[in-house]
């Protein structure tokens, strides 16, 4: 049987665009003589649709689109993900389903069994779990259909314990017992810089364990915080990858299921986290703009590495003509701040304006002088500068319709080293899931084919430049140490005590943890952060704001 | 058997405070000759702890606190809610449990069966469901323990369909079959202005249906967005309320379980939504400050009804000495803006400062003039004013340690009639779940014992005063109509088409829905909103930002 794995970028709720894409690929596959074409999980409505699934008109739209697509399945079959209605009066109203379309109609509707409800996932909020295991018979083949998590039935990770345990036997065991010729797993598995590796291992292991070839079809594209890298692949029953669709882009691969055990294994995939983060963020920016109907970005350029890397990534995603920089020097800005930012803009070919903030700052000082009544300068005055910059950037954004990109990194977001309504402004946080030490690595990576980020921006010591001669290291531990502590506390979810036991300085750990916990209130109001790690601030990490811990 | 229902206010993660409170109430109950004292769901750690439940040290702290509390249960028994560890290798790591403490130890640990995972609830993210039904035998009584949702097994609401359906029989049926003498239901059921009524009906109906007296113990207090009103009650097996603890405050009621069918029914409870919203918000503000270790609030006073009602509620919650107002008039402010705000401050006895924004505005205009290059004034200039106000308020907040209270109402939050990083600033949104028409009703209610909100503030037409002679009604439908449409779209989750079919103007519905959907990006970055309705913006409503719908 000739099988096509189709890896596409879907737009949540955009039935017209999603259906048209799916139908076009069905028609093209027909011309190539494909028997069965597979699209990813909830392809028809996009993933994750969140509470749109509670709206009747949204679900009706999805099901109508499935029927439209089915009409094009003449002489070819398709597997398309979409919501379906649970006919039972009790339980959740919907299933997360794989529609098997053939002969112009919906032939079968197979539901997801394991509904992830941890980290960034909330599927148990919407869907009723499957309890009925069967294969689809088509053109003499027995085809098992599973959806994403159904394949992940025994991962020895902490997350695995947080999974569904409705059945003693896993869906894989239930389906393998039915002796399918092959399995199609349709997925919506979000990117993180180690996920591609983990995912590959799981698919290969499961195919070998159950002796069943697995066609794995994931989506690409970004939807708000979540980026999807694809990584669609065919794995034979020995657990070898025989075909792959390149990551981070739309693509198709055709597979002859009867001869895949003869195909040479192809295990090549990118594993360098920095390269992956780079590709993920570029896609994330591009899709945020495209899917929101936006074109142009504005960025405050400080001469520092965060805004430089943000600008370089934005230029790669949107084109230099769509990215504008604003330099906002104050009396505390060093001379190199302006020249480094100008060098950056020249390297990237982007336009800039320079607006000194000194006079606005003075007018604010004057206005508040009677209220402040001679009190000493403190962090208030630093925040005023950051907020004036935020205000001027938003004024540009409003006047010209450019969306402000936020330039805060994960280290800063973690410890609250940023001003709410100031440098924390922005429609999208580009680097909010990238630690400062990795921002430097990204800068080097961006420069691999010629300088984008000026060398001086990379080598000078980081500074917020909100008071004379300020350095980040005045108030924070060195990023080399801080980032390691933060990674253990946030990504690895280790207790402060166990981090100290690993050999980190007790006082540094205590301070870092205290700052992370205390600054939950700032992160509550932060822009959506493009998620590239296993634990980003945002939807996957839900901490109470008013709490003592 | 003498039973004490103890309704307390818990602080998430504050084991010392929570344990001390619980222990003090156990000791007092001993002195009153109580046999069994019942505390609410997850009392020991506070509700909702969210992802703190994924942290080892947090769970260990909770379990250590339970052991400490158990030591005080000599000659008395206690039911205390807390997390417990699921001993099975598979499934979620925790149970949501009712600990039965007696003879100085944990006698029984009974787990929650129905784990709500809809609206504001995410319990399936953390907890494994109970599968083992038994009663606790103590002093000759057979006591059934259930936890919150376990009682809500057949609500004919849309939400009910979104509930767990792991068992054909509900926990109520399973436990009723064991013929308990009475049931203790420990709950953490959040407030909304109709929830007290719904909750009472459910508890009474279930007690009568299963012919079992039910002691219902809920918590009070606010944790970030969620407010808890208590409403703890004893219901006899005929479904009549025999004892109640007053809502919105800590309290205890002792019940003699053997004679409750003789006690006169007491069904009195507050049903007026405005009175309930008032009480809920006052508690919400007070707890946000107290539990965050904060004392003082600052509010921008515009002379309008939103800031006036916010200030009045803040004064009730925190005391006039802890609430400071800042008047920030511009050239577009009417004369009455300042005088109405001054009248308000005089009524409330709160201090104020007045800071004209004209000069700062002019300095921003000057700074941006070369960039704007002669372009027409538009919404940019309105936003600049709002952001200057936000900046000055935050400067006061930073300098004096007062927390800025946000004054936006739900109608504005819905349609995006507010400036991000401007009037949307604030640590807590007081009225973000109160429609504009209800804000006026709250103003009248606040004035019932003497004027708090000036009459002119209530009767003048709403205006943002960001351009000459501006009125809200210039750009929005009348609030009388708009709020009804919004309520149907947001709270009732009705489709735009069905709202039109109810008789609302098609163009008004189309515009309102479009604005709600488009402004998801503003609400993404909004302050936490005190939830008082059945569907607030925030944790209970999760819409994709980058989507087409």
Automatic annotation (TrEMBL), chains A, B:
It catalyses: deamido-NAD(+) + L-glutamine + ATP + H2O = L-glutamate + AMP + diphosphate + NAD(+) + H(+). The keyword NAD applies. GO terms for biological process: NAD+ biosynthetic process. GO terms for cellular component: cytoplasm. L-glutamine binds at residues 118, 189. Deamido-NAD(+) binds at residues 383, 412, 522. It comes from the Bacteria. Coiled coil: none annotated. Its EC number is 6.3.5.1. Keywords: ATP-binding, Ligase, NAD, Nucleotide-binding. InterPro entries: C-N_Hydrolase, C-N_Hydrolase_sf, Gln-dep_NAD_synthase, NAD/GMP_synthase, NAD_synthase, Nitrilase/CN_hydratase_CS, Rossmann-like_a/b/a_fold. Pathway: Cofactor biosynthesis; NAD(+) biosynthesis; NAD(+) from deamido-NAD(+) (L-Gln route): step 1/1. CDD domains: GAT_Gln-NAD-synth (cd07570), NAD_synthase (cd00553). Residues 1-259 form the CN hydrolase domain. The active site is at residues 41, 112, 148. One of its GO terms (molecular function) is nitrilase activity. ATP binds at residues 300-307, 407. PANTHER family: GLUTAMINE-DEPENDENT NAD(+) SYNTHETASE, NH 3 /GLUTAMINE-DEPENDENT NAD + SYNTHETASE. In the C-terminal section; belongs to the NAD synthetase family. Belongs to the NAD synthetase family. Catalyzes the ATP-dependent amidation of deamido-NAD to form NAD. Uses L-glutamine as a nitrogen source. This is Glutamine-dependent NAD(+) synthetase.
